[in-house]
Amino acid sequence: MKKHVFILFLIVALASNLLFATTPAIASGGTITAYYFHGTFRCPTCKKLEQYSKEAIESNFKDALASGKLTLKVVNIEDRGNEHYVNDYQLYTKSLVLSLTKDGKEIRSKNLDKIWEYVGNKDRYENYVRDEVAAFMKES
């Protein structure tokens, strides 16, 4: 009887470890969030910045998005409760910011400030975002 209880205990313990080991924040030590920040007024260029960012991330990082290692959030900084992002990331215009979080605390961030420079060329824009996200993930 003791042997059966011990084996059952081992099975439960192993199953728990497998379950928690697949959680992205535990397995990798952190998660990355790509924030696209905008205001309430949205001009065509601002909407294009968001569209190109989404397309670049969703088409190049499907596995990371599916696993939860990477998330994409679109945030209106003028909505109540979001004002802190302006100070947190020193925002002065619409921006795409990468943020690494471990144990609920942001470890580092990077503002992809060349999105405005490349918005007139979709391929260059998407290559820039892809390369920057890949490098950020590799360094994390």
Structural overview:
- There is one protein chain.
- The chain is of the alpha+beta class.
- It has a single domain, classed as Glutaredoxin (3-Layer(aba) Sandwich).
- 54% of the residues lie in helices and 21% in strands.
- The chain is built from 7 helices and 4 strands.
- The chain has helices spanning 2-21, 24-28, 44-60, 62-67, 84-88, 115-118, 122-139, and strands spanning 31-38, 70-76, 95-102, 105-111.
- It has a 4-stranded mixed sheet.
- A hairpin with a 2-residue loop joins strand 3 (95-102) and strand 4 (105-111).
- It is globular, with a radius of gyration of 20 Å.
- The relative contact order is 0.18.
- Residues 2-28 have low confidence and may be disordered.
